[in-house]
């Protein structure tokens, strides 16, 4: 068992080290989000399964706080309202659960972030299409080869792994880095 544990830790470390090559893209995304928030825009998050939980986690970091006592920042996880998710899923199909919410809640000065380990989640792709119609900026967090989301998002961070667990671990790290940088840029040094 000890060898398996060490193997998982080593895989994690390798993935995170490779992620450092995306630091410039992460910086660009931080600048986009900071600009959005300074223009009274909001961040809308969408994802499925573990990525849905990551959306809730990241929205909470923005609305509550990450490391700095500060005012709340406008951020919504589109993964949390079971009545909307089930009614839209039932009436329009599961692929529309995010696009319908974006149609209702999103403005052209907002940012829509889609998290998908495969990069091929149809409901996220549909959400990005709707966001683009509105004029909102779209950001993807993916893994593998980026999938279709990499071609649909304005910006996409592709975690260099095909292991779902390692991709999800990297997505949380990316989210935390973004939160730390935004708190520092928007409110001053921590």
From TrEMBL:
Q: Where does this protein hold Zn(2+)?
A: 57, 61, 168, 176
The biological pathway it contributes to is: Carbohydrate biosynthesis; D-glycero-D-manno-heptose 7-phosphate biosynthesis; D-glycero-alpha-D-manno-heptose 7-phosphate and D-glycero-beta-D-manno-heptose 7-phosphate from sedoheptulose 7-phosphate: step 1/1
Assembly, in brief, is:
Homotetramer.
**Protein name (record):** Phosphoheptose isomerase
Q: What are the EC numbers? A: 5.3.1.28
Localization, UniProt: Cytoplasm
> Which HAMAP family would you find in this protein's record?
GmhA
Q: Which organism is it from?
A: Methylomonas lenta
Gene name linked to the record: gmhA
